[in-house]
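Reposting from the mailing list since nobody answered there.

I have sequence plus structure tokens for a pair of proteins and want to know whether others read the tokens the same way I do. The first protein:
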Amino acid sequence: MKDSDFSQSIQQFPPAMAYVPWQNFANLYELEKALKIGTIFPELDKPFVGRRCVK
């Protein structure tokens, strides 16, 4: 598919709508741990272990 074909075909789709809940600034990781893990929120700490996430 040429880039011009993609640009024309994408115009037929409406913009996406997302539901993004507010993130509460509570139970935060310490700065050093957050930098190592990649998030300050423990709720978002879902390490990739191959096929599924772990709690």
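The second protein, same order (residues first, tokens after):
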Amino acid sequence: MINLCHPESQVSACFKYTCNLQLASTQPCVCNPYQLISWWDMNKFSAGLFVNIGASLQWFVGQVETRKWDESTREAGERFGTGVAEDLRKIGCDVSAQAAIRFGSELPNKFGTRPITDLKPRAEELQSVIFDEMNKQLFLWVPPGRARYYEYPEDKSKWDETEKAIEGRIRDRFGKAAAEINFARECFALARWTPCVFHLMRACEIGIKALHKTLNLPAPFLADSWGNLLKPMDKQLALAVSERFGDWATYPEFFDQATNDVRAIKRAWRDRTMHVESDYNESEARKALNAVTSFFEHLSAKLDQDGKFYP
């Protein structure tokens, strides 16, 4: 904003560059690099500042064109350069901030070391530098329908049942898997469908290994192979319930559903994910998100990632 005092003869002495924006210590996208920022907030932050700077520069040029340039105007220009530089740094425009400092320190003076005719082209140059630097800062657009996959609503009362489950029992008992599920949700929000499924398969591996630990067996050869992890589980399921090991005999329905979920996920997504020939679209990624989250909702009811069982 430009504050001007009247009468006109006092304008240069009373010029003050200020910004009406409530600027953070840094631009929103730097202060919170992994949070969503609305288009409106970014426009308020950067575009509004650019308008204020442009209006102030135009005022200085006007003082030259109307032959009102004097020592007090030059001093106001120095203050302007310092103030603009501070605000530019807050929106990440460090090169432009240096240019603003130079603009304020190299203004026409009474000694004639800087021609007054230089002011207009230098003001235009400063505007161009600011525009070019701001133009290099790029943002990804996330549609409102997928925004909540990137970050949960700030108000927890607005969380849906899936979000409550992930940040509740799943995180409590399968912390690593919850982190992978949230990475998958972020990928989904950004339309990165195949990476979304990839993170979900990483989460599932944690769940399968937890199931394997309930059998009190050593880790199999190639312990990351789902097939190797499932073999002893299949042997248990082939036995009569009364002949199964430990909790597998006491809670057959729990383990039946858990292994069925693993098989379904393996067939639908895991085997394809490990080959470059396969990729996924939004619908497939959404189905994978739902299936894997449901798997962990079931698993976390009685099990944790270390294989500890909760009757």
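Reply #1 (J.P.):
I read it the same way you do. The chain has 14 helices and two strands.
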